[in-house]
Specification:
2 domains; five-stranded mixed sheet; Peroxisomal Thiolase, Chain A, domain 1; alpha/beta
């Protein structure tokens, strides 16, 4: 029987500090009502300790996933870290995580596809396993968004938070695991969501720092319009391609960017609210962390054979959907 890549364990890490809407009211011109109505967010976690980057969270999330499975890190074949906030340029955060875990036999690299990064990473990891060349791949998704957010800009500072999740993928011969993927991108959308400086096109300088060009820039209305359209369409498309009806899908696992986008995607798929994973109210948009954190929070409700549809949209633009059959009953 053909091999599939199945998720066999989960881990997560969230910083302790909660940045609530009430605190944001003292920082920028906004209100709890304004934020909640437009995004669905009530609070977000922030990693405030100096010197701690995204790998700090990634190591802890990954270690939990390995511990839950009882897996020796030396058994890992590869580690992929989906993130837009690596510890530092050039040096791979994934490689550092692997070394700290003791995954001496795994190669590791970072993957950057904005908010769709974990989705892209899930597909990439599955291909290694389906090829038969690898048996165990660790996929981490997370970001320290507070490191690239301007907390005087109310259009972005109310949205993003810090957090990290990890999943272990292993070969499965029962037909469970990743079934199908639809991944898309359109580079013309990068003008609407990006960080202007810091790359090869506009390297860091005193001027770029003074102009605040190292923070996330987002044109909210344009991004919202594209996200609603693309996430909903690709989610419906993957259902149609696999002849899935609404009653066949147990869970939608959506990117947690905006509750209105999530609601629109669920409506397009014909799903009731009780089939939609939702934690945006507690964490905000953790970018690459949203999908694995949803799995982590809803873990106890997942049953072997459940049909899950993952859906995401991110800067670039990037977007996509994945159809996956859950591989095990969560232990109580």
């Amino acid at each position: 029987m053909a091999k599939h890549a199945a998720i066999t364990s989960l881990g997560a890490y969230l910083p302790e500090y909660r940045l609530t809407n009430e605190v944001l009211e003292t920082m920028v011109e906004t209100s709890d009502e304004w934020i909640t109505t437009r995004t669905g967010i009530k609070e977000r976690r922030i990693l405030r300790e100096k010197g701690q980057g995204v790998s700090f969270m990634g190591i802890r999330a990954a270690q939990e996933a390995l511990d839950r499975r009882g897996l020796d890190p030396k058994e890992l074949d590869a580690i992929i870290f989906s993130t837009v906030t690596p510890d530092m340029p050039v040096a791979s955060s994934a490689a550092w995580v692997g070394s700290e875990l003791g995954a001496d036999n795994a190669f590791a690299y970072d993957l950057q596809a904005a908010c769709s990064g974990f989705l892209y990473g899930l597909f990439t990891a599955s291909q290694y396993i389906e090829s038969g060349r690898m048996q165990k791949v660790l996929l981490i998704g997370g970001d320290k968004m507070s490191s690239i957010i301007d907390y005087t800009d109310r259009t972005t500072c109310v949205i993003f938070g810090d957090g990290c999740g990890a999943v272990l993928l292993e070969a499965n011969e029962e037909g469970l695991g990743l079934q199908d993927a639809l991944l898309r991108s359109d580079g013309r959308g990068r003008q609407h969501l990006h960080i202007k400086a810091g790359g090869s096109q506009l390297p860091p300088s005193k001027s770029t720092v003074e102009l605040g060009q190292h923070y996330v820039h987002q044109e909210g209305q344009q991004v919202f319009k594209f996200a609603v359209s693309k996430m909903a369409q690709v989610s419906a498309d993957i259902m149609n391609r696999n002849q899935l009806r609404a009653e066949d899908v147990q869970w939608l696992v959506p990117h947690q960017a905006n509750k209105r986008i999530i609601d629109a995607t669920a409506r397009r798929m014909g799903l009731d609210a009780d089939k939609v994973m939702l934690n945006i109210q507690r964490y905000g948009n953790t970018t690459n962390g949203t999908l694995p954190l949803c799995l982590y929070d809803y873990h106890q409700k997942l049953r072997k054979g459940d049909n899950l549809v993952f859906s995401a949209f991110g800067g670039g633009f990037t977007w996509g959907a994945i159809y996956l059959k859950w591989a095990y009953d969560a232990p109580h």
